[in-house]
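REQUEST ID: PR-0412
SUBMITTED BY: lab tech R.K.
PRIORITY: routine
TASK: structure prediction, single protein chain
INPUT:
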Amino acid sequence: MTQVDPFAELEARHISQWKALFTDEPELLDALQTQPKGIIRSWDEIPDLMTMAVPTIEWVVEGILPRGSVTLIAGEPGSYKSWLALSLLRAVATGGRFLDRQCKSTGVLYLDRENPQAVVRERLSMLGVESLSGSRIWGGWLPDAPPVIGDSRLLQIARDHRPLTIFDSLIRFHGADENSASEMAPVMEGLRQLANADATVVALHHKPKAEGSHYRGSSDIAGAVDTAFAVSRDRKAGLLTLECFKSRFLEEFSITLRPDLSGTGEFIVTEAPDATAERSDAERIAQVIRANPGRTQSELLASSGVAQGRARAILARFDGQLWRVEPGVHNSKHFFPLEAQATIEMDI
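STATUS: complete
OUTPUT:
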């Protein structure tokens, strides 16, 4: 006797219902058939890095700000962080220059939970910004304040527009304890997700007054970014120093700036006073060498008018740039102008 499956009729009815549903709403079938791409399930599926196509670095600000990266700019209150960020907005939005570096024209999303609306408008006016076409400033003065880090709206904007996204300032966009690595890790991961979606992220942050401290909070903050700058202000000299203390792309460097906010609204790149003084002393020594080729180091130390310790360091630093050295007897060093080809008379 043939056995009848008691569930066959019920299963057939369910199949018929599903077919009717997918016929009426085919987009449901598309959603089911969409599988996550790039899932690696085994050792052999891990691609060989050395054979993969690697994109070249694209700079939003040449030599300073790589596209799709996370950058930290830390400074004490009154160190012009927000001014620098608004100047960056202007330069990137117009494809102009920032700190003497060429910018690639890109939309900018400036998220501001730090400054009043009137202050931001006044600063933009002083910087000569008349229009924000293609860029947006989302401030805390709006009925809907700018989203905190991790909000899906920011991720959607990053995917759709690839903007330079500036957070002013970092602490206002999360509720974590900034001294806790475990609490800051998800915050920094939120910034990384924006960068992975091809936004270029800049987070303004605070810096303690303690000597040698580049930024405030957990080491995970600097550990999670690609580039980090510390801004310090010399109020007497009227200068700023922008020190790059971390970079995954270039050697670390330092830039000295003179704010000209009452004039052109620029941050003018200038030489630090110490570097100017060193160059002046080096030129003084070079003049002595040109006038008396072949002088020994001890003779130069005595006659240059530069403090001996400083002169000794300058002689070593600018060797091959402003003069050349030839050995003499008894391990003596003789200095010549670069263009001179004198021969040292060997003493017997």
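NOTES: Confidence is low (pLDDT under 50) at residues 340-348.
REVIEWED BY: pending
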